[in-house]
Specification:
Blueprint: E1 7-12, H1 18-27, E2 31-37, H2 41-51, E3 57-59, H3 62-67, E4 73-76, H4 83-92, E5 96-99, H5 107-120, E6 124-126, H6 134-145, E7 151-159, H7 169-172, H8 181-195, E8 207-215, E9 228-235, E10 240-246, E11 257-261, E12 265-267, E13 270-272, E14 284-285, H9 301-314, H10 322-341, E15 345-346
Length: about 350
Amino acid sequence: MSKNRHFGVGIAGCGWVSTQYVPAFEKNPHTKVVALMSPRAASCENLAKECGLRDVKIYTDYGKLVDDPNVDIIAICSPQHLHVEQAVLAAEAKKHMVVEKPIAISLEQLKILRDAVRKSKVKTVVGFVLRWNPLFETVKSLLREGALGDVYYIETGYNSHIAEWWTGWKWAKTKDYGVSSFLVAGVHAIDAARWLSCKDPEKANRITEVFAYSGGHRYGKDLEYYGLEVLLAKFENGALGKVNSNFDCASPYYFPITIFGDRGTIVNNRIWAPSKFPGQTDWVTIPTILPDTADVRHHPFEHEVNHFVDCILKDKESHCNVEDAVNTHEAALAAMISYSENRPVKLPLLK
């Protein structure tokens, strides 16, 4: 880090999500994007032009990005099957990192990444950007205040007809690289269930057991895995949950949230909490921003980045770091084991 308190940021992967990380880091007073990396130099040049970057280095070799002494933070925005290899190299080079989800696509990869980060002690944040969504922040605040009491059941879902409109579809639809609906995108819903069922403002609930089913109608057509996965979960605080990931839906994007506590209930942005709203006779609707689109321009990347930079400056761990994200990814991988072997799967899977 330079004397003027700026961290140099390198962006690995110049696709859709990178268009949000670049301006987020550029707006933070402690960071500056100094390098872009993609196998295609033209992709870097286009991203630099779109975001108004000047004097930015362009790399087509990830190793050179990692070796750049002016790069203190790497944002890994590449296709998901590259995340572990790139993150491990970043950890070994003592670079702090943002790792887009999923952070790994197999249990073996997950362990390799977790152990590399533990050894390096670098700061990490995983791209579960919905933790900073205004609705999520409102719900988390209500939980902290005790407006819902103790959460005993939660439902979340990621419903999006992912297809050719998405630039990552070519690799994401394959079994080798996409692996499962939950891993490609549904981990957002698993993470939401963990985050929104825990009262602690800096923690997510841990999943301890999973039972899952798979289905849908696109498998064997334009998907090499089941587009619908439904996961039943037990949490460490005794709560139960149901999470689905549905690529087969004939509908616009939809991310439903239902939370049942012993003193109140939340359904999306509608709240029933008489202890919070005395005399309540009907649902209270909170006018806020919901997670109602898959468009990355809608998501609070700036808040995620500001949180991460603050963690680096204060030498503290993010509530959304790699260590925490292991549980979310274990649940996604356990779902495949469960519906393949028709049995419940206990977590943790990693030792």
